[in-house]
Amino acid sequence: MPSSRYLLAATALLIPISSTAADTNKLKIEEVLVTGDPMSRSSLDTVSSISIVPDEQLRALNIRDLYDLLLRSPNLNAAREDKFSVRGISNEGIGPGGTGRPTVSIFIDGARQPGRGVANSWDVKQMEFYRGPQSTAFGPGSLAGAVVVQTRDPSTQEYSGEAKVGAGNYGGREAGIALGGPLAAGFAFRYAAETNQTDGEATNTTLNDDEWQARKRYMQRLKLSWNATDWYSAMLTIQDSKLREGNEYLPPETAEDGISTDNIDGFYRDNSQLWVLSQHAELNDDLRLSLIASHAKNYNQRKGDYDISDANNGYFINTVNTENDSLEVRLQYQTSAIKAVAGLYYANDELVGTSSSIDLPYNVSGMQLRADADLAADRDATTRAVYSEADINLSTRWTLTLGARYEENEATNRSAFIVTGAELIDPVTGTTIPGDISPLLKPILDNDTTAPSGDDVLLPKIALSFQINDELSAFLTRSQGYRAGSVDFVSSGNSPSYGPEYTNNYDLGLKLQRGSWFVQGTIFRIDYDDMQIGVRVDASNFRTDNAGEAKSEGAELEFRGDLAYGFSVFGGIGYVDTAFVEYQDDGVNYADNHFPNAPRNTANFSLRYANDWGFFSDISWSRTDDSYIDRENTPTLLADARDLFGARIGYQGEHFGAELYGQNLTDKFYITDRFNSPSLGINTVYVGDPKEIGARITYKF
């Protein structure tokens, strides 16, 4: 690192920790602790828009995983299980291409986790959604936001556990167990395991498979804590997740009937593991030192039919291996006058991916042929950062927040296109002519290039909060987001690089806590500079543009509280307007076009009833507007608007519980995403889950 900038940033950021400002008695309101915030604030004290969804709310909505919750939260939207948006900004960025990082990070017990289906809700204490740029607090891959999943910690006081079994339509079944408690010598443990499966609702008429979209999920997690002294504690978390499912996409003309016509037996497989070791030392009454080390590993593979028909027009196998190792040292300081954190962060990310095309028709210099080829992309990236943030109490009501992060990213990137086999096509019969001609094509088409990329950035943050009275507070925040540049996939020539993208984010919010009621509202604006926009050139080439300017602006309102006679409510409303401000490509002006996967309006509402005898019922509704799926805003390529209704009724005693539940009760058919690529000959849709009816039995001990 450039030593002068690094030391300057560190010195400036650590000044608040050595401050000797006079003690003040800031008004505090008892609230839920935000576990992902390095400052360890309460939800009322956070200076950003954050949704905290506790275990009780997850159960009331029958939430199994992150995807279910994204469908039912304001200004959050899931197109697919691994493709979602926050305030209109997709976690994948805009369009395909490149080897860049995501824009939204997912953390499980402090570890960044890249896998799909890893955010399971079983034995989870709470889920947290941070809307807007979180690069200062969470680092790489957090330009649009962050998701934090906090699982249940071991208890050092008593043994406890829970078990469940359930069944539903479409062959649905689930089972789970969680138990833990104290061991000896200050040790305690918590073990959780769960599986949920379904035979799916789609049938492949070509392969005569009526379980074409079957899904199977498996999760195991072990947490081991040690807390034998007054000043030191440690927690080890190990989690293993597996997902097995058929291809999600369907032909547009038969999707509503749940019919697939692929002639290739496709699948999706995902294996994810994480290890987290958190250590904390209470140095004195004011200082806490933390060391957080994590290792996350993910393997996923997808096999699918290119033309999703019974014709033999080739298929693909995409394989991606990723590993992330990180180490963070964090020093927290707190008195009645100031609360601060400073830290050092190091991470190494490795990505190895291949996209193999098999029997894909090609036209090379007028020759018609079928070819096998591999498109490969490797990245070895290192991130180093120093950061700090401080809440300085200016008076009993005013608090100034200052923060910054200096970060350096360096990466070695490889892209390659390798022909592995080819046969000519007889123009008369349309059949292949025996004989491998790939040795003739390889000198023309093969390419293997390695290129470096790297950049550094200083990300400031400033906020001012005002405690209006004992129940109402307001905040104004300005922060910056950042995503590193990288190198594109290519099949010929040098690997084109693209630069980083930046955002300036402004949040103005109000938070109210009165009795059981909590209400928060935020208006925001996000200004993009050099937005990374991926463009597929053809079957084997991607390009990433750095668009001039773009924006996202809107508001969100959330509330929860008790009514009377056992009734309570929670819900929210979100509005977002996105647009490219300056962006032209190949003579086409995209200014004023909306971002893909950015519905303008989202809303959700739930009503719950529970009495002293243990009987309960929940009804819920969520709304999402339609949205474009491409940068061109093609009117015929929309994700559908949808209203989803759910309900739950049951009994929960001291130990035994039973319930009936339903999701998408009106059996609404809706398209969540589309993939339309003329260069590949693909036109597919992704559809939401149909009506689900099921029952569940639980036992707590």
Instruction: Report mean pLDDT, rounded to a whole number.
Output: 87
Instruction: Measure the end-to-end span.
Output: 53 Å
Whole-angstrom Rg: 26 Å
Structural class: mainly beta
The CATH homologous superfamily is named TonB-dependent receptor, beta-barrel domain
Question: What is the makeup of the main sheet?
Answer: 22 strands, antiparallel, barrel
Under CATH at level 1, the class stands as Mainly Beta
Domains, number: 1
**Quaternary arrangement of the chains shown?**
single chain
Q: What is the fold-level CATH name, i.e. the topology? A: Maltoporin, Chain A
Anisotropy-based shape: globular
Query: How much of the residues is beta strand, in percent?
Result: over 45%
**Which architecture does the CATH hierarchy give at level 2?**
Beta Barrel
Poorly predicted parts: 1-30
User: Roughly what percent helix?
Assistant: under 10%
What is the overall number of helices?
5
Number of strands: 42
InterPro entries: Beta-barrel_TonB (IPR000531), Plug_dom (IPR012910), TonB-dep_rcpt-like (IPR039426)
Signal peptide: 1-21
Keywords: Cell outer membrane, Ion transport, Membrane, Receptor, Signal, TonB box, Transmembrane, Transmembrane beta strand, Transport
Subcellular location: Cell outer membrane
Explain this structure.
The chain has one domain (3-700): Maltoporin, Chain A, CATH 2.40.170. Helix content is 5%, strand content 59%. It has a 22-stranded antiparallel barrel. A hairpin with a 4-residue loop joins strand 10 (172-182) and strand 11 (187-198).
